[in-house]
Design brief:
CATH class of one domain: Alpha Beta
Bound molecules: guanosine-5'-triphosphate, magnesium ion
Number of helices: 12
Largest sheet: 7 strands, mixed
Strand content: 15-25%
Number of strands: 14
CATH architecture of one domain: Roll
CATH superfamily of one domain: Beta-grasp domain
CATH topology of one domain: Ubiquitin-like (UB roll)
Length: 386
């Protein structure tokens, strides 16, 4: 699964990517630091089934850290979008093409009001209204999508006439790389005309759900804005990417014990200098105590589990041993959309399983059918003829 970090310049996209992945990326306090997209692997984190089943697991496609299952997801941090990017302002919006495959987006928004929509600093006595950035960003993504559709619609119209097939079918084929299906297009067509700008907005909402990370929530000026943002918009999570990065790096260097999403950390080294102690103290008081966590892991989890409605399932080769054929217990955790059937899961695990599919066995060794809708945390043996 690929997820995108998008937003206006200087909002903290690269800081968030680094905090989630510890990838070596450039961060700086000026706009357009990132020009080429950065891709790295982060993790969504959920309780591991090993706890519930009281077994020791040997994860293969994921990790288990202290009873939490870390499932890898690809993250892409792109350049900043500015108002008018679709007309070529700033770095334009062509770089969004890298996000065609993204299932969802985190809008990294500078909630402090100390950066304007061009990424320039604003004085504290004349702050920027961060809420305006939401419209700016959505508009630029819609224009990008609109551009892709416009480029294809005339050609496809002619081809559809020639082949005597509905144009929406051909468009769906063209847009399938964007995660847009023929059904999405049909339902959007009921609300808006194919050539209209509104059509692109509807498709964007279907294919690229957005979670808003109200970043720089550690700065005092963000407090006032957070309330307003949450009041007017769903799916807003306050974050401090800078704090998360500091904690992840301190943990990496053995200075503290901290896991992403935690509400506290423990100092385990006596080699901290005064500056480090002060910084950690600030994070404890101004971020963790106030927000409950840095919000960064919560934002990623919430995008995947709440916004995109993914669940976690554990296919195994033997339900009795809870293992794969090599004896690895709970080897793989798969992210699948809510409503996925057992047959669809078989197809995702292996094409042979799908072709020779028979059914499945649940934890109680009861048979389950092809159309069984998987539940979050299900451990299941897929039966197929060999
Ligand atoms: N106070 C505070 N500063 C932050 C936070 N996250 C990022 N920053 C700072 O904001 C500035 C911009 O961070 P970047 O991660 O480079 O921002 P970006 O969105 O990738 O910027 P572009 O690539 O230029 O679009 C840097 O000085 C960061 O240290 C945060 O949570 N709190
Ligand atoms: Mg950047």
């Amino acid at each position: 699964m690929l997820l995108g970090l998008v937003g206006l310049p200087n909002s903290g996209k690269s800081t968030m990517l680094k905090a989630l992945t510890l990838a070596d990326v450039q961060i700086a306090n000026y706009p357009f630091t990132t020009i080429e997209a950065n891709q790295a692997v982060g993790y969504v984190i959920t309780g591991c089934a090993c706890r519930r089943l009281d077994v020791t697991c040997n994860p293969q496609n994921s990790k288990c850290v202290g009873g939490s299952r870390w499932i890898p997801v690809k993250l892409l941090d792109v350049a900043g979008l500015v108002p008018g990017a679709h007309e070529g302002k700033g770095l334009g919006n062509q770089f969004l093409d890298d996000l065609r495959q993204a299932s969802g987006l985190i809008h990294v928004l500078d909630s402090s009001g100390l950066t304007d929509s061009e990424g320039k600093q604003r004085p504290a006595d004349n702050p920027w209204n961060p809420e305006d950035n939401i419209e700016v960003l959505e508009n630029e993504i819609d224009e990008w999508l609109f551009g892709i559709i416009q480029k294809n619609v005339e050609k496809l119209g002619k081809l559809a006439e020639l082949k005597k097939v509905p144009v929406e079918r051909l468009l769906a084929e063209k847009l399938s790389g964007l995660g847009i299906t023929e059904d999405d297009i049909k339902s959007a067509l009921k609300k808006a005309a194919l050539e209209s700008r509104e059509f692109s907005t509807i498709l964007r909402m279907e294919s690229k759900p957005i979670l808003i990370a109200a970043n720089k929530a550690d700065l005092p000026s963000s407090e006032r804005n957070l309330g307003k943002l949450k009041e007017k918009h769903e799916h807003v999570i306050p974050t401090s990417a800078e704090s998360e990065l500091a904690l992840r790096e301190a943990a990496e260097h053995g200075l503290i014990e901290y896991a992403p999403g935690d509400s506290e950390f423990r100092i385990v080294s006596d080699e901290l200098n005064e500056k480090q102690e002060k910084a950690l103290d600030f994070i404890r008081k101004s971020v963790l105590k106030k927000l409950g966590s840095t919000g960064v892991q919560r934002a990623l989890n919430s995008l995947v589990f709440d916004r995109l409605e993914y669940i976690v399932v554990y296919p195994v080769a033997s339900i009795g041993r809870l293992s794969d054929t090599k004896g690895n217990v709970l080897p793989d955790a798969h992210l699948v959309r809510k409503g996925t059937t057992l047959r669809e899961l078989a197809g995702k695990v292996h094409s042979v399983m799908a072709d020779k599919f028979i059914g499945g066995l649940d934890l109680g060794k009861k048979k389950v059918g092809a159309e069984y809708k998987l539940k979050d945390g299900d451990v299941i043996e897929v039966l197929f003829s060999r």
